Amino acid sequence: MKRQIENLIRRIKNVLAIGKIHSVDDDYNAQASFLADEPKDKTYIAQHYGFTSKPLQDAEAYGVCPGNRQSLVILATDDKRYRIKLKNGEVALYTDEGDSIHFKRGNKLEIKSNKLSIVHNAKDKNEPEKIDLVSVLYDVVDALDMAMTSTMIGPQPLSTKAVFAEAKTKIKKFKNA
pLDDT tens digits for 58-94? Predict the structure, then answer.
């Protein structure tokens, strides 16, 4: 009975694999090591639909062998060096450069990045157009600064020049940070 259990444990260990990633190509195939004598080239990294990542060198790889060790597939990767701290129930996307999208408790969303852009496909162009949100915000504040509202005593500014000047200064500081 002991021999059968040991045989079962050995078989389970042959199905599961934990290793280190050395590199990843553009088709998401990794060069990785799972055992000291078992380097693997072209090990496919399965991705969840709608999410993709390209792990860095020395990230951890968690794989499964559906049959033999030659057909190993990486099902998950992890890199504790760059993981951000979360409270229970929170979710985040993050990079090794410190960018993150953090869904916090209390229905708060925090986006950290040095530059925030939205890329959309213009209907009359084949190339995507990149829009810098900070520049768009500055343009909106600038337009509001020039806007007038109708009153009984004639056109009046929406607010004082100081309010818009302060907003523009904050936007410039954010953009140049």
Answer: 999 999 987 776 788 999 999 999 999 999 999 999 9
Residue type at 169?
Answer: T
Q: What is the mean pLDDT of residues 2-15?
A: 83
Which CATH fold would you assign to the domain 2-78?
Answer: OB fold (Dihydrolipoamide Acetyltransferase, E2P) (2.40.50)
169 phi/psi in degrees, rounded to 5? -60, -45
Please give the model's pTM, rounded to 2 decimal places. 0.64
* The pLDDT of residue 142: 84
- H or E stretch covering 173: helix 161-176
Sequence-separated (6 or more) residues with CB below 8 Å from residue 105? 87, 89, 90
Each domain of the chain, given as residue ranges in start order, spans 2-78, 82-114, 117-176
